[in-house]
Amino acid sequence: MSEEKLTPTRLVFIPFLIISILFPVIYSLLHWLLLTNYEIFEFDILVDYFLPILLALGLYVVFINSRIDLLDHTITDNVHYDGGKFLFIIAAIGITVPTIILQKTVHEIAGKITELGAISEIKQHRPTKYYNLKSYFIEKNYPGIYTNEWNYKLNTNFDVYIVAPILNSAQDTNLPKYDAWIGKIYRFDIDKNENSKVKEQAFESFTNKSIESFKNSTFTGFNHLERMRQDVSAYQLAAYQTDKADTEPIIFEAKFEPFEARAEGDLELCIFIYCISTAAFFFLTYNKPFNKYRLSRFLKIPYEDQRQPVRDPNYKSKKRRNRSQNL
């Protein structure tokens, strides 16, 4: 392609557009195949967050950054702004954020649903992400409880994990071990500089209210059960407190919305963010002038400085010629 036909749209925007479409799609497809083949249920921060960010930044550095560098960000002869950094932010949002959102959607749609007559049938089937129970009984009177205290910025956060066994019927409460549990988390925060005694009283009061709220929760009428993805070990520790938990207790979350609507809203948010970032990147690069020197180096062609020289390079030879004519 000749230099005259090159535009920022062709040289900068089109490569960004191709990468921002292909990378989220290919990465999500590979993730979906991984989930469906190996039945991975738990949340993986490496696969869902860090790996998409690292790969997207790598693609940006290799394919996009050098092209953005070709643009001339000079406003006037004396004023210059670092537009490359701003375009980097836009490009990073356009590639990484939709990819991360898509991974949540992939987790939702990749899981299969298994129909069970009762929870005791769960080990007779291959593990899946979702289950539909025809009959069940949830023993909420003797819940398992695990608390976790941690500091973040200016607050001390207090998490209360509560689980209750899922049984076939009320007659199964005397079983020695329970395989499946339903769980909920309750969160509370307080100023971390608060007096330790005040914190202790606040946390104790919150724990009691959380237990009461859990016991009053109506789990009847849920549409389906979903395996917990996040904080699974914390829920399992709550189950172990009852001495009724199996070696690897299965923790479920009750879902009341229809199974078909499990990924509703995520895809729309992904498309919205992608469209906004792509449009912003296009308008910030459209018809922007190139830096002629960097463009010639990128195209590996000789650079010709179009600026007029301050002094004529043939000035001395012309002066000698004029003197000889005068003689």
Descriptive notes:
With 327 residues, this protein is of the alpha+beta class. Helices cover 47% and strands 19% of the residues. The protein has 8 helices and 8 strands. Strands 1, 2, 3, 4, 5, 6, 7 and 8 form an 8-stranded mixed β-sheet that branches. A hairpin with a 2-residue loop joins strand 4 (144-152) and strand 5. Helix 1 (8-38) packs parallel to helix 3 (83-110) and helix 2 (45-68) runs antiparallel to helix 3 (83-110). The longest helix has 31 residues, at 8-38. The mean pLDDT is 84.
For the largest beta-sheet, the strand count, sense and barrel status come to: 8 strands, mixed
Instruction: Sketch the topology as an H/E string, one letter per element.
Output: HHHEEEEEEHEHEHHH
Strand proportion, as a percent range, falls in 15-25%
The outline comes out as elongated
Radius of gyration: 32 Å
The counted number of beta strands is 8
- Assembly classification: single chain
pLDDT averaged over residues: 84
Poorly predicted runs:
none
